[in-house]
Amino acid sequence: MKRPRFTRTLLAAALAPVIATAACASVEDPVDDYIVIGMDEDSTGPGASYATIAGTTVRATIDRLNAEGGINGTPVRLVVENDESSPTNTPSIIRKLKDQGAAAVILSTGSGAALQAKQVSETAEIVTIAPVALTDSVAGPPGNEYAYMVPNPLAQYAEVYCGAFKAGGNGRLAILADASPAISGILATLDPKLQECIEVVDTRKAAVDAADLTAGVSRLLDSKPDAVLVASVGGNFELTAQNTLHRLAPGLQRFSLASIGNQPEAWNLANPGSLDGLVFMGSLSTQNQRTTELEQWLRTIKGPDYSLTAYDAQAYDAVMLIKHAIELAGTHTDPQKLNEAMQQVQDVPASFGQEQLTLSFNPDKHIAPDSVCGLVLVEFGPDNTPVGPWSDYQPECTPEEGEA
User: Fold this and answer.
1) Confidence at residue 400, expressed as pLDDT on a 0 to 100 scale
2) pLDDT computed for residue 75 by the predictor
3) Which of 162, 186, 247, 389 has the fewest Cβ atoms nearer than 10 Å?
4) What pTM does this model have?
């Protein structure tokens, strides 16, 4: 039986020129003749593996808008700058994009850069929206008047993990993490919230390039956990961790961040069966027809075998949320009116998450998902490929507190 596809692929470097560049703006054109959208794309730094996936989909989506007549009958142009994964570069990038006429900026970059953009967006009065950042503070107060984000935030990751632990009868959690700054930042948010619902009996960290985790995993297992969460940026560390855990504790329930789901090229490198039963935090469901339709469309651009990623879906939705705001505002040249309109965008069907998920903003809510069900727990099967949603638990599509 053919398995449903829940894969998220890393974009090959060769794909970069695939998307037509017709949407890129010439800053010499009259600004009233087109709508400029800026993009801060980390295309050469450490975050390029996911930022370029989102970036190519932004380009494709703007091309599609133009083929359909633009926004309010006005063509859309894209101007792009690269922050090279360096948050210190971000403020000047945002100002440069605004100087080029950008009405709004898509932050196809990491959370650190998005946080720096947030500081500039308010003083420069320019809407910024982050399709790939997960840190709640990217779009949370203070100073978030012009800052928005598309994905479910890390606080909701913790909520879903806690629901999974309860459903699985888990009471003792051990965490195995790489020592990268990115994962340290994620755990700083996740760990306190996880401790509210489960006893965290041990946390072990090792270098990202660690070749052998046997000793660390053995000490971790000495704490007698009934579940383990692997927190890593993926790659060799994730494979080594999963191979070692499967070898030393084959029956132990394992959870992971989204990284393993984003890297299908790594699945074949795992030991046979070592990913079986692993549950990772995803954002895509084949039961969402919009997700399926988006994948089918992107395959006409990125290739017939392309597997949709959450980065694609959330980048597409970022463009569409800006489109809705410009339509509501009736203008793209008045930054205050555009920002007010952004906060009036309501109930936009999402291209990621479960079928019922909608996206909205208001003056007090700058994180788009209206429910935690933008997250989907996905399970691996014995052939080291994802087989679909984890049957033990999925978050419900109920409005967040304060929503209608």
Assistant:
1) 58
2) 97
3) 247
4) 0.83
